[in-house]
């Protein structure tokens, strides 16, 4: 019959295992903390490189000397923030901020040239109302070569790329 003073072998094994669990958890915690610190450092490096690249790109697009980048505060990171900061401080550094009207003017010029190209193409095009008439005339089984030349507009074509006179 067992009493409270009997020695139990199972208690000793459990105690040893219980003592090993916190030690393993402490080691795992230290390892995870170290990984976390390394990831934070890598993230901070990536963020700083991204900010530097963003600032450089905005400065280049605005035609501003890249030396001004060292004066831009570290909390200014996005392209919009950099542009805003440049606009606010343009007079301090002695340059004129490029207004957005230049970009609008460039877009208008591109649109005007595209419109002109489309307009030139449509001036020489056959009107849609004449397509059915031309199709009927070309499909006529009694069509002669002279009629076909009149329809296509190549009267007197010699085949050498030159018109006969």
Describe the structure.
This protein has 165 residues and is mainly α. Helices cover 68% and strands 0% of the residues. The model has no long low-confidence stretch (mean pLDDT 78).
Topology summary:
Blueprint: H1 9-62, H2 79-93, H3 100-123, H4 128-138, H5 145-152
Order of helices and strands: HHHHH
Percent range for β-strand residues: under 5%
Number of strands: 0
- CA radius of gyration is 41 Å
Mean of pLDDT? 78
What does the overall shape look like?
elongated
Name the helicity range: 55-70%
Q: Based on helices, strands and strand pairing, what is the structural class? A: mainly alpha
Descriptive tags:
165 residues; mainly alpha; 2 domains; 0% strand; elongated
Please give a quick description of this structure:
The chain is mostly helical and 165 residues long.
